[in-house]
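User: Here's a chain of 47 residues. Predict its fold as tokens.
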Amino acid sequence: MQLWVPGRGGIKADIVLGHDDVQGYLDHPGTYFGATCGRYANRIAGG
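Assistant: Prediction complete.
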């Protein structure tokens, strides 16, 4: 799984932490990578 976003200077980077494919999650069901909440977590109006 990948999520490519542009960084400084327009260079794209994959920012997803995890297995390379779905099979990795199926083979290791106890693996927990945690959650990363940005500065806007719990700040969505009306949500």
